[in-house]
């Protein structure tokens, strides 16, 4: 069977590029690596890229310390502030504290929420676990607070999960 083309322009061959089609741009990282390889081949010195550390967030640090102080007002034990900047994408600081009973854990969470709302006008973005009191999570954006019943804290071991994060014991 013979196919005839009846249009004004001749048919395109398979694999031929259209005129005016967008040309894919090289990715920036690939281009930088290629430049580095070329420079190394020519024995040129290539300036090293400076590693950028996580930027300081004084407001988040102050909020983490305020949360730690507020849970200590309700007799929390083993209060730790973990600096997870550069490690976690969802927060800059994680505050972890323990309580002796589920009622104490719920009371710590209520105290933190009411005092931050009254004093600073800060409300959590989300909160979980206030009904049970085993593990309460308060999310303030840059600061995430975990309030545990002692046995639950030992079971989940969040400090072990964030072993690489710098920590500050608060008492």
Molecular structure report:
- With 171 residues, the protein is α+β, with helices and mostly antiparallel strands.
- It is 35% helix and 19% strand.
- It has five helices and six strands; from the N terminus they run ααββαβββααβ.
- The protein has helices at residues 28-41, 58-73, 102-120, 150-156, 158-161, and strands spanning 77-83, 93-99, 126-128, 135-139, 143-149, 167-170.
- The protein has a six-stranded mixed beta sheet with strand order 3-4-5-2-1-6.
- Strand 3 and strand 4 (135-139) form a beta hairpin.
- Helix 2 crosses helix 3.
- It is globular.
- The N and C termini lie far apart (89 Å).
How many strand segments?
A: 6
Structural class comes to alpha+beta
Q: Main β-sheet, in a few words?
A: 6 strands, mixed
Report the C-alpha radius of gyration, rounded: 28 Å
- Following the backbone from N to C, one meets helices and strands in this order, namely HHEEHEEEHHE
Categorize the overall geometry. globular
Strand order of the largest sheet: 3-4-5-2-1-6
**Residue-averaged pLDDT, rounded?**
78
Q: What is the percent of helical residues?
A: 25-40%
Instruction: Please give the count of helices.
Output: 5
């Amino acid at each position: 069977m013979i196919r005839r083309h009846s249009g004004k322009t001749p048919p395109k061959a398979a694999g031929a590029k259209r005129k005016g089609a967008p040309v894919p741009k090289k990715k920036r990282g690939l281009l930088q690596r290629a430049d580095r390889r070329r420079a190394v081949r020519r024995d040129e010195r290539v300036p090293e890229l400076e590693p950028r550390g996580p930027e300081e967030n004084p407001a988040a640090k102050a909020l983490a310390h305020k949360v730690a102080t507020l849970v200590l007002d309700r007799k929390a034990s083993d209060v730790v502030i973990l600096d997870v900047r550069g490690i976690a994408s969802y927060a800059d600081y994680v505050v972890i504290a323990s309580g002796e009973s589920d009622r104490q854990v719920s009371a710590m969470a209520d105290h933190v929420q009411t005092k931050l709302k009254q004093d600073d006008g800060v409300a959590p973005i989300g909160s979980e676990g206030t009904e049970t009191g085993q593990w309460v999570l308060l999310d303030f954006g840059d600061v995430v607070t975990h309030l545990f019943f002692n046995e639950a804290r030992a079971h989940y071991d969040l400090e072990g999960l964030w072993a690489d994060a710098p920590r500050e014991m608060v008492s």
